[in-house]
Amino acid sequence: MTKQNPLRRVDSALLLILLLGTAIRLQYLDLxxxxxxxxxxxxxxxxxxNFFTRSMNIFWPQASWxxxxxxxxxxxxxxxxxxxxxxxxxxxHEVLCRLVTIAFSVATIAVVFTLGKRLFGVAAGRAAAFxxxxxxxxxxxxxxxxxxxxxVCFMVAGLLGYVAYLETGNxxxxxxxxxxxxxxxxxxxxxxxxxxxxxxxxxxARGWTALRDRWLTFGVGVGLVVVALWYWHADRIYHMTGxxxxxxxxxxxxxxxxxxxxxxxxxxxxxxxxxxxxQWDYYDRMRDWTWHLHLTPVxxxxxxxxxATMSGVAGYxxxxxxxxxxxSTMLASAVGSFYHEFHQLPLVPPAAMLFGxxxxxLFDGEWLRRRFGGWWGVPAAAALAVSLAWMAFIYxxxxxxxxxxxxLDLGTMDVGRVVRERTVPGDYVITIEFGEYGNNSPVLLxxxxxxxxxxxxxxxxxxxxxxxxxRYHTRYxxxxxxxxxxxxxxALYLRDKKAIDAGHGATLFQLx
Length: 512
Description:
With 512 residues, the chain is mainly alpha-helical. It contains 22 helices and five strands. It has helices at residues 12-25, 38-53, 78-90, 94-120, 122-134, 136-141, 148-168, 171-187, 195-206, 214-241, 280-294, 296-309, 316-332, 334-339, 348-359, 365-372, 377-396, 398-403, 411-422, 443-448, 462-472, 488-494; strands spanning 428-432, 451-455, 476-479, 498-503, 506-510. β4 and β5 form a beta hairpin.
């Protein structure tokens, strides 16, 4: 009996889709992290550097904008820690961070195909994977440095594991589903939405008897406990240092020891403010981003058709529950969803499944050969799909408004270089980068390769500066904004300090 070549089991169309998805994610690979949403990317870069230079303890991530009290309450920093491991092996190169994210993004294409194949067949799986591969938002954010990217990958993989277990009874699938579901919630809390379709798939397959299946209940239950324990730990870190990434508290709060000396800061938190849900602008923005950025016009239209017409297809209900669960988390985090496009990334895979149901014939080689009466139907369909995807990619404006290769914010890199040249590694630096809503900005301190504190111009006071100068011997303050119109007291305080032009309108003050 001859053994089958494993390569023959690999879908050739999937390989081409993976190649396409990888290629478009590698564009502008060497750009510095100065594109749209650079604040969030640099936050993760700073955590990675702190792993690399200070401690590789993944349970105690650190940041540079909290002075000596450096520990940061945040999502489980798996992405940042993996990049730090590469730093240890190859040196500190930001491109390594992009490559880690690209690996997760491309893996998402593969797991979407596998889930789509199991639910709806090979052709639908290919179509769903294709949309994920070419989605402008999945491409852009899939080559940045966001925890949302591995979150989406683990969400799809977790659902896949449990769907496979419910069909086959293979406990390895259940274990993989449990691990991936837990990792999804660890790296980003909104991923717990994936419990919805998992529970529905279990109910559909087993009914009430699913509750007696320990591989289901124990796997999901332990995963939720692990996620809860991590975020309890992260919340303890916040109460210890005052540093957080807006999980349950505002990320704009100064450290507790400085709050008595600061002006009242404006809160930055992604939950709450549900008045947004009563405003048409919220839904119009979600529609606009989904149409242009997440699904493209063709993908959006065919996904809606799939939602409206494919209810009779087995597996449709699991995808609809999945979509509803994701939409619910978007509504729950209304503020974050309104200001950050990457909060809608979990929407793409379930929508791609609905797209796949309708677009499947274009990704079915046998159907195409029969329909067009020859071999040429397959390359014609491939050319059509790639052409439409390319036009949608250009139409989305993702290169102009997100990649920004000709409009990168390089000013902070130049200012950071000046600060680095004028100070020594042990010096603490106070930074001011925004007029308001800008406490705890990581950007300038990261670029300067220094530690210190970050405030916006409204929050900081002369008392804060004096406290940091006397308590921690802080010698420098750098501002990229004009302080005088916003904070007259601080402007008067700095009037007699030695000032150095740091370029791009920034000023470096020597405090002593």
